[in-house]
């Protein structure tokens, strides 16, 4: 096999893996992780289950790939996230209901002891809370207008972000995530611009 052929094969394999991850995201959004099967994902991309296992040897490996891909979509370089940009992130999330639904379904399922994403979400939230504390510290210093430290306020900020997503998923006509989040920023002391 020539170098060019090897690169073409690798490119095709990467494209197929990306297609499988997108299909897995859709299936998980529809059925939850426990209800999603490798066979359903394989069927959606026109593969046999054995063909899918060539790319992802286990359902857990596919789940990790879905979660990693979702994190890549939302990645912000360290130190670049600001409190005012969080409102833009909320608006962006409102344009991606399938991604938010998948994330929310996996998060809800992951609270059980044996769920393969439990460690992922536990570690992710440690990092998210630390990142939100940095954002709050950059905006307010060591104390918010309420007197809370950034570390004490960070879990509340994360809870508002995630809680709004759940409410919006359940009733998108009644819950305007972006407006509600801007209202929360006003409560924190941020201007309502």
Automatic annotation (TrEMBL):
Record InterPro entries: BetI_C, Homeodomain-like_sf, HTH-type_TetR-like_transc_reg, HTH_TetR, Tet_transcr_reg_TetR-rel_C_sf
Keywords annotated in UniProt: DNA-binding, Repressor, Transcription, Transcription regulation
Location of the DNA-binding region in this protein: 37-56
Gene3D superfamilies, A to Z: Tetracycline Repressor, domain 2
GO terms, molecular function: DNA-binding transcription factor activity; transcription cis-regulatory region binding
Stretches assigned to the HTH tetR-type domain: 14-74
Domain of life: Bacteria
Pfam families referenced in this protein's UniProt entry, alphabetically: TetR_C_6, TetR_N
ATP-binding keyword on record: no
Keyword flag DNA-binding: yes
Protein known as: Transcriptional regulator
């Amino acid at each position: 096999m020539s170098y060019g052929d090897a690169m073409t094969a690798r490119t095709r394999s990467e494209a197929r893996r990306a297609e499988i991850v997108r299909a897995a995201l859709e299936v998980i959004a529809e059925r939850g992780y426990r209800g999603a099967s490798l066979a359903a994902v394989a069927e959606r991309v026109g593969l046999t289950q054995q063909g899918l296992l060539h790319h992802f040897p286990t359902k857990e490996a596919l789940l990790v790939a879905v979660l990693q891909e979702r994190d890549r979509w939302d990645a912000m370089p360290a130190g670049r996230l600001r409190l005012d940009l969080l409102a833009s992130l909320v608006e962006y999330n409102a344009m991606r209901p399938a991604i938010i639904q998948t994330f929310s379904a996996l998060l809800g399922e992951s609270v059980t002891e044996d769920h393969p994403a439990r460690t992922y979400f536990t570690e992710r939230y440690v990092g998210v809370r630390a990142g939100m504390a940095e954002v709050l510290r950059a905006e307010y210093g060591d104390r918010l207008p309420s007197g809370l430290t950034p570390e004490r306020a960070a879990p509340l900020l994360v809870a508002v972000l995630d809680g709004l997503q759940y409410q919006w998923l359940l009733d998108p006509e009644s819950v305007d995530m972006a407006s509600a989040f801007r209202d929360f920023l006003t409560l924190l002391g941020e201007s309502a611009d």
